[in-house]
Amino acid sequence: MRKTSLEELTLHSYTDKTGVKTNHLTFYTSGPEAPEPLQVGYFEMTRSENAMIFQHQFEEGKYVIEGEIVIVDVETREVIIAKKGDMLHLPTLSRAIYWTPSYAKVFFCSGSDVVVESAFDSEIAVIDVPELCDAFGLVPAEG
After folding, report:
1. Helices then strands (H, E): number in the chain?
2. What is the C-alpha separation between 61 and 140, in angstroms, rounded?
3. pLDDT < 70 stretches in the chain
């Protein structure tokens, strides 16, 4: 067993192609000798006019610590609104559109032993996701 303090950890920021920024803090990553890789930590997001698409390379569980996160399943177009205390499961190779109406801090446990930067492949504006717009009454900004 090993206890890790926050001082030992590094907060990493990732920005996708549209400028959506997320912060990740990983508490635990399994070593190369582990029979199955494991990563545990949390990520934070703030509201953006863009959404983020993430390809899950491994099965993942999530728990909303603070705020509210909206996930749209790319395949089924189902909109899931998860708030503080809600738990989510995302299967291996699922693609999800992530957005928050304000702020979200989400705990995760994943089979991944690394954050897959190529998974942040979004080039999508919120207005390009009609399911998201319908759920939140969002309209395009007039320019």
Report:
1. 1, 10
2. 32
3. 1-3, 112-122, 140-143
